[in-house]
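re: ur question from earlier - yeah i can do the single chain one, its not a big deal. heres the input i used so u can compare w yours
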Amino acid sequence: MKIEKIGKLVGIVFSLMYSQLAASEQPNVLLILVDDAGYNDFGFMGSPDFDTPHIDRLAEMGVAFTDAHVSASVCSPSRAGLLTGRYQQRFGHENNVPPHTAGMDVAELTLADVLKTVGYRTIAIGKWHLGNRSMYHPNTRGFETFFGFLEGARDYFPNPRQDDPEDFRALLENRKQVNFEGYLTDVFTDRVIEEIEVEDSRPWFMYLSYNAVHTPMHAKEEDLKRFEGHPRQKLAAMTYSLDQNIGRILSTLDSRKELDDTLIFFLSDNGGAGMSNNQSSNAPLKGWKGNKFEGGHRVPFVVSWPAKIEGDRHFSGLSSALDIFVTSIAAAGVNEVLGEPLDGVDLMPYLKGKKRSDPHEVLFWRKDLMAAVRMGPYKLVRLEGYGYRLYNLDEDLAESQDLSESLPGLVREMADRMTRWEKELEVPYWWENKDWTSVTYEIHRALMDNEDPRFRSPREKAVFEKRTLENESARH
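and the output i got, formated as tokens:
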């Protein structure tokens, strides 16, 4: 890392404009991130076959967003944007982080860094996926306490191979490997409740990053029996457990009379991974995790703060997970963080009716050869070497009708906005595996043409290419 970036970080850390709220006026902040959850797999989102009463209660207490997006359609870059409030491409974090060598740029300030500076106890529980080396560890990135694992996925039950001090999937208590018993979603919630019950006069910020409902599809036997005959039995059982555990957290806050004064965010890190992966449903959206259609980045999103915002409402303004950073620090009394620009906005004036416009006029996405831009109701998808597709989401949420030929001027305007944004970005610090890049390219090509992809994984690609060669040989 360049010396000037270290200096920049130091300058940012000590350049907070803070209103000096009393600790009693600062809300607790609970950020609940679930993994690979389908857009249509919660009751409050209209799921026809999943019952999620506790998550639905959270939505009823707060505001459910109908046009909210994460900044990336895969795990690691989405988390980098979430925790910094900045488009992660600004610091080269465009793709999933390599497992052993890289991580989120240490010159970037995290939400935990800021809130810790203004008196918060900071806790990270669950999946990290922002780098495994010491310099990228949560304890180095503003979190006083970490209880979770560093990699992108692991088993939900104890596994001797993974529960090894040398394995990045092992469960850690700060930097020390610890063993666990039971089901990981329960184990993480147990720790959440312990942290809530700690006797400490400071407000707390807790980043609760469940690995549910990411693969592997592991569920408790009693939950699987509950859903015998369900067409998506494993996901239904995992979602049931997730919902029950969020209910435990809400009950704990309620019993301690802290629920009204806790600012809670609930969202998925990206779109559902799809029926062929973790059985998730993004209906009625097009696409899934990993691509730039709505199913890849439009997510269930709830904001609850009963003491400050009226609940049981929907909000349709264009919003982003990038807004969580600014909303949280503003609630804590931080007026501004000087230094690198933030890309999110404070959502509270919009939720309180003080501002009537959308929080964002424009949002961008880019990963490798795929990119997209949103302006008002219009969405432009770009695939390098293949072209553009333009959609009006107000009239065509499923992104099925391409308007690029009928609105060429709008295509040029939106493409120009995207190009100008890209000039502000860093060259990606690392790239994804070439096999996966070619698979993702094929998926985008097919979805742009309203076709089924010819393959969805490197393994399927190898089978497709083998059959293609065999067919060509047979013709000759």
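The radius of gyration is 22 Å. not sure if urs matches, ping me
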